[in-house]
Amino acid sequence: MDASNETTERTDLQRPLVDQKPPSDVGLESVLTESSLPYRRRVYLGACIEMKLLFRLALPAILVYIVNSGMSISARIFAGHLGGKELAAASIGNSCFSLVYGLMLGMGSAVETLCGQACGAHRYDMLGIYLQRATIVLALVGLPMTLLYTFSYPILVLLGEPKTVSYMGSLYIAGLIPQIFAYAINFTAQKFLQAQSVVTPSAYISAAALLLQISLTYITVYVMGLGLMGIAYVLTISWWVIVGAQTLYITKSQRFRHTWTGLSWRSFQGLWSFFKLSAGSAVMICLEMWYSQILVLLAGLLKDPALSLDSLSICMSISALSFMVSVGFNAAASVRTSNELGAANPKSALFSTWTATLVSFIISVVEALAVMAARDYISYVFTSDAEVAKAVSDLCPFLAVTIILNGVQPVLSGVAVGCGWQAFVAYVNVGCYYIVGIPVGCILGFTFDFQAKGIWTGMIGGTLMQTLILLYVTYRTDWDKEVEKARKRLEMWDDKKEPLQN
């Protein structure tokens, strides 16, 4: 080797990695720890890398969650054009059914943490075991839920809801009961795919199911004349179409030959331990989802329950649609955080957390401004009632604030899932939502007679408190310790033991 070539080779070896490769080909941790680069340059290059990874995960996940939420919203739209009582019945039915939705989604999120850890440890065979075990546990949990919804009419009446709305809502709920077990399979499969950064196929499947649902609902309502029950039946069928397509994709695709090795008796082992592990995740998610649905239930106790239910359910539908965008970033943040912690990259985990939070916040501000600009017209998508439209317009400022808060809080919850903080967040949710938010809302709404605005003000207060606590905890997190916790879990796998969260 001549002197000039030797000098060139030595220079290439000494040159920083980020100068030799484009940002997309360089690891995030190597960029953030490159001391030869100015701080601003590191942040810029890190943002280029993280934004590409983040949106690759978040955008398909957002589409999945929007479509899933859109299925419920489209059902309300069809019910709203049948009549005010039908809209109120579908709204209260969907609100009550969110109990099982939140429960199944929450318990399924434990799969996301464990499958993410298994991917990081290259224990790919465990992903399929976790998927089966979670599905069994969720299906067993669904059995008592069917009994609860079978007797939904007396329960709604006992809660003080109007008898006519309760009766129609109970019929609507009866048509959704088979959907419980579709949730049990769908959410575990969804988390199984997300942990492997496979989200686009689920988006295609969900989009196709939404189109099918809209088409079939139109036929059952306007051609066959099945009314509210037809809407419920089609919604249930659509969810089972999603389940069937996802199951075929996972079991037949060669893409998962290492993570899905077929049915195994090992999935029946440790069901109780897995249930306890899932319970923390379920409590965390359920407390968040039920919080907004309680607002709808409380509206049924106000002076004009039909108007309050209709206006609040429309606002909640819009909020839920916006919330799905943040939930997409929640999923992306969870995957990115767990992956980086598993790879022993504390700076990358920190950077991923704040990047996802900032991006979601900016998007939520844009959404809130759009809602305020369309406040006088937005309700006509759901109903032609001018009185309801005016009530929705009056509530839009509260809706805008809620959308902005929901742009931050779900992302931080995703970070909590990635780190295994579900139990802590559950305690925070109980304190902020149910000790502060709901009591304050009831006092303002009923005692001070601010009606729906008072209830919603209390709810916003609880959400704001929770968001501030999560921001502080995330800011104070020692990411090196989080990496050490992840390493200890991986050592358990080396001993052929299954990982459990601390």
Number of domains: 1
Largest sheet: none
Rg computed from alpha carbons, rounded to a whole number of angstroms? 24 Å
Strand content: under 5%
Q: What structural category do the secondary elements indicate?
A: mainly alpha
- How many helical elements? 19
Residue share in helices? over 70%
Poorly predicted tracts of residues = 1-26, 493-502
Total beta strand runs = 0
Question: Kindly state the mean pLDDT as a whole number?
Answer: 79
Based on Cα principal axes, name the global outline. globular
Q: How far apart, in Å, are the first and last alpha carbons? A: 56 Å
In N-to-C order, the SSE pattern is HHHHHHHHHHHHHHHHHHH
Jot down its keywords.
19 helices; 502 residues; mainly alpha; disordered N terminus; disordered C terminus; single chain
Quick structural overview:
The protein is mostly helical. The protein is built from 19 helices and no strands. It has helices spanning 3-14, 17-20, 28-32, 39-82, 84-120, 125-150, 152-158, 163-176, 179-195, 200-223, 227-252, 271-299, 305-342, 346-373, 386-405, 409-419, 422-447, 451-475, 479-494.
Question: Can you walk through the features of this model?
Answer:
The protein is mainly α. The chain has helices at 3-14, 17-20, 28-32, 39-82, 84-120, 125-150, 152-158, 163-176, 179-195, 200-223, 227-252, 271-299, 305-342, 346-373, 386-405, 409-419, 422-447, 451-475, 479-494. It is globular and about 65 Å long. It starts with a helix and ends in an 8-residue tail after the last helix. One of its GO terms (molecular function) is xenobiotic transmembrane transporter activity. One of its GO terms (cellular component) is membrane.
